[in-house]
Amino acid sequence: MAKVVITNRIPAEGVALLEAEHDVTVWDEAECISRETCLELIAGADAVVTLLTEKVDDEFLDAAGDQLKVVANVAVGYNNIDVAACEKRGVVATNTPKVLTETTADTAFGLMLMATRRFGEGERVIRSRTPWQWGMFYMLGMGLQDKTIGIVGAGQIGIAMARRAKAFGMDVIYTDAREMEASAAAELGAKRVDMDELLATADVVSLHCPLIPAGQDGATHHLIDAAALARMKPTAYLVNSARGPIVDEAALVEALKKGEIAGAGLDVFEDEPTVHEGLLDLDNVVLLPHLGSATVETRTAMAELAARNALAVLRGEAPETPVTSI
Ligand code: GLV
Ligand code: GLV
């Protein structure tokens, strides 16, 4: 039996898979584990199941010890993991792609509708008991039909978002270092453009790329900065369901205040769970507390996939979805 540590509550189905074969410790509290407790808990673990709130770096790997074989992240994004540090020590790291694709695209689409149709703003009017009345010109938004969506990052979630947009009558353009899967591009009539053209053309810019730190190949940190926002149409909307630091939040606040863009829908923030004060004061931005993959079904599937990944490595087999090249 190997020692498996789960650094926070995950759906029981994932825990059960691990418990069937190994000695499992779960930090079973509603709030996130503190760094100190986490480093103590993982000492001597052969496998650690992590959430995106845990930073897996040299300090973490040292605290676990040399016997550690696998870090199974219960998230598709793995910017919390120092992949090179894992590889150097022969630790396999895994993530949970595919199982959350449709749910995360639903969230991005929801943000787009809420922002363009002013649904968040409308809800706030009623809840604040502000008097209102139906009116021909009351709270008009932007229709999506015949508008252009610009998908930044045409991976699985980007494609799933594009499918939804096409079903709502939108034209699809995208930017990515690689071509979109040919079958998806044909089905969507998606045109690949460079970032500048996408920013200048799209009525909605929706982010679906990973967060890659500044200085690394293909860096996406502050990809949407003041200059990028200035290139967007004043009538355009920004949707971020990927990772907060892809957007320069201070620059976004300025752009929204000055009317450089029409609005934004955000599920992620630069310094979660802190949200920029400037955003809280603006009516033309919709804010969600990182609900991208938050359905019962999807979180269960993510926990099960992470568990299968950890079990595979502990058995000496290849995991389904590694992010390390070992
Ligand atoms: C959630 O943000 C994830 O990366 O799965
Ligand atoms: C609006 O409520 C309409 O009936 O057009």
From TrEMBL:
TM helices/strands, residue ranges? none
CDD domains linked to this entry: GDH
Q: Report the residue ranges that make up the D-isomer specific 2-hydroxyacid dehydrogenase catalytic domain in this protein.
A: 4-323
Under Pfam families, the record lists: 2-Hacid_dh, 2-Hacid_dh_C
Keyword Ligase on this protein? no
Signal peptide interval: none
What residues does the D-isomer specific 2-hydroxyacid dehydrogenase NAD-binding domain cover?
A: 109-292
Q: Which domain of life is it from?
A: Bacteria
Keyword terms, alphabetized: NAD, Oxidoreductase
Q: Which family does it belong to?
A: Belongs to the D-isomer specific 2-hydroxyacid dehydrogenase family.
PANTHER family for the chain: 2-HYDROXYACID DEHYDROGENASE YGL185C-RELATED (PTHR10996:SF178), 2-HYDROXYACID DEHYDROGENASE-RELATED (PTHR10996)
Name of the protein described by the UniProt record: D-glycerate dehydrogenase
